[in-house]
Amino acid sequence: MKSGSLSITPLFSGSSGNAILIRNDRQNILVDAGQNCKKIVEALAMVDLTPEALSAILITHDHSDHISGLDVFTRKYQIPIYATPLTWRGIHANERKPHSPELDHVITTGDAFTIEDIEVLPFDTPHDAQGSCGYRFSSAERSVAVATDIGFMTPIVFESLRGCEMILLEANYDKDMLWNGEYPYYLKKRIDGDHGHLCNDDCARTVVELYRTGTRHFILGHLSKENNLPQVAERTVLQAMEAESLQRDRDFILQVANRYTPTLPRWMETES
Ligand SMILES: [Zn+2]
Ligand SMILES: [Zn+2]
Predict the structure, then answer these.
(1) What is the CATH number of the domain that holds 266?
(2) CA 151 to ligand 1 centroid distance, Å
(3) What predicted TM-score, i.e. pTM, was given to this entire model?
């Protein structure tokens, strides 16, 4: 890793729970806390971190696969939390016991803020949770971003991702698997709707467009357990890139985030 540069290490990713680590050589920030406290601590240990090493937890929205561990984790380790006003409403509604209000930071989408040497830009995402957002991080002239739980690729999301070196992007479902699957009709409509999740095809199209803005490292995340498979998501994106004569490991890096264990970033020869 270049000194001072940012990288993304998903600890957990998928409809089963999300916690994404953003790190540079000075700090560690967690995006979401959607597994129980014990599992988050264990995953941090797998990447040689303790909870005390976190400088902040940023929440994307109040669905349980993003906040289920937050309540206990916060009371135990006292890490500052950042979320939009409407997400805060959901977080407080899910708390079994209150935590110290000093830890709470209210943020506004479109307004960048800093956590020590990292600038953070929260941006609006179209999703069926009020106040939902994604995050772009910048430090030492390098940017990375996390964008999951997106019903469709809006201009705001795309512009927020533009030019990032590394992006964790949602590849939630394969359309055929969803519509031929077991889910009830209303749930299929919800997932496939404008405030649901991003399908593999839309993810692949976006990856091609982001490559043109300079992104070279893609991590596919938040895969559905029932309506997707890592190899299906990966193949869909690879086919779209190959149609543009772009070759994996020569022109770009593609990874799929593990569901239950940390995914360490792979680097191309030229990046190290
Ligand atoms: Zn959600
Ligand atoms: Zn989610």
Answers:
(1) 3.60.15.10
(2) 10
(3) 0.96
